[in-house]
Amino acid sequence: MLLLTYMLVGVVPLVLFTNTIFRTMDEYFVQERKKELLSQANILSGKISASHYLYDNTKWSQFNEEIRQMSNKENFRIIVIDSSGIVVNDSSRQDIGKTYLVQEVIEALDNKDVSRQQEDGVIYVAVSILDEHSNKIGVVLISALSNDMSATVGEIRKQSNMLLAIIAIMVAILMYFATKFFTEPLKKVLGVIIKMSEGHFDQRIDIKGIRHNEIADLAVACNNMAERLEQVDTSRQNFVSNVSHELKTPLSSMKVLSESILLQEDVPKEMYVEFLEDITSEVDRMTEIINDLLTLVKLDQKEIPITFVKAELNQIIIDIIKRMKPLANAKDIQLNYILLKQEVFADIDKTKFILAISNLVENAIKYTAEYGKITVTLDCDHQNLFLSVSDTGIGIAEEEINKIFERFYRVDKTRNRETGGTGLGLSITHSTILMHNGSIKVTSKEKEGSTFLVRIPLRQTT
Ligand code: ADP
Prior knowledge:
Layout: H1 2-51, H2 60-74, E1 77-82, E2 87-90, H3 103-109, E3 114-117, E4 122-130, E5 136-145, H4 148-197, H5 213-263, H6 269-300, E6 309-312, H7 313-330, E7 334-339, E8 345-348, H8 350-366, E9 373-380, E10 384-391, H9 398-401, H10 413-419, H11 425-435, E11 439-445, E12 449-457
Helix pairs in contact: 1-4, 4-5, 5-6, 6-11, 7-8, 8-11
The structure holds adenosine-5'-diphosphate (ADP).
């Protein structure tokens, strides 16, 4: 297809163009030749009438000689015809005495000068011969080949057509390879994209074979996209299996609890109460997981629209600390807020911001042993606010730090079941901070403590 287009665009106009030029040149030369022949015929016609060649038999040989010379010199055939259409003289001597009433002769007798090129390329001109009373007494008919220039043009035309044919073939061959060079790698890329759209994200394009730069870039971009899609697909699968697993655990314990009561006879009332309390706490846990999941999903789908409002943050954080205080007190943990700036105004979505920061403080309390210390600070520069939550808790191992924002990721599963975590809190915090166009960083040392540092721009441009 590409090849055909190139041929149409490149070769066809060239052929048309050269042919038109040659045709115009040819016509020009034929026209010039006609004019020349007409003037020769007129000269001869004048001589014939002036010398009375047609009447004066004594001048016959002179007449013959004149025609012969002229015909030889100019290399054309001269035929002289009288008014009745009979050939009086012929430079080729073939047709003397024959009747020669061709179209050109009739028109010339009608007092029109005729010049015409026949299909075979021979040019005929005919002019009438007049006597002294302007009566038409005959016709001079000259037939000649078109001149040398015209023949040369014809030759050049033939050669250039041949050259064009060769060029066309060469272009076609070149185009064939060029299209192969471009379309083959594109086909490769397309093939992989089609496979990916069918769900095979493990497909990659072999970049080694692609020599064309832009297409190689495209292939690399395509491979990166495939990698990303594969990651998304894997994390989606992990997420689904994590959700199922997390929900299955409380369900199994509820089943065990209820079955153990059902299978026993004469169960004391206290046991009923105790088991039902356990079941209720499992239901609470499931509810907690489902609520967190719903929050996350909504954040993901941008279902909860983010609405930024300018707010003073010191007060908001003091309120969060106040709400968390009882939790900290229960473990005799010091929970301090260090106020670095008197006023920090920023565009935030209040509900989401409070949720995100509460998660951080709640975690700090959860993962800090009794008599520990938690410090929250808030600072800002011209562009960003910086909020840090530091604890003297259990810390996080270096290799775990990158994973804690993943959904359901918990460093120590057994410990977390006691502390009641769902493994979703930091995912929610992370998503929320991203929605505020900010970032979150963690520094931590095992058994010494962790610091979560949040940066959020003071002004939101949306
Ligand atoms: P969870 O509901 O289990 O607390 P999070 O998503 O809030 O889930 O946290 C993920 C994991 O990161 C936690 O299970 C815990 O192992 C670790 N983590 C979070 N915050 C802290 C902290 N302040 N100190 C130590 N470990 C932490």
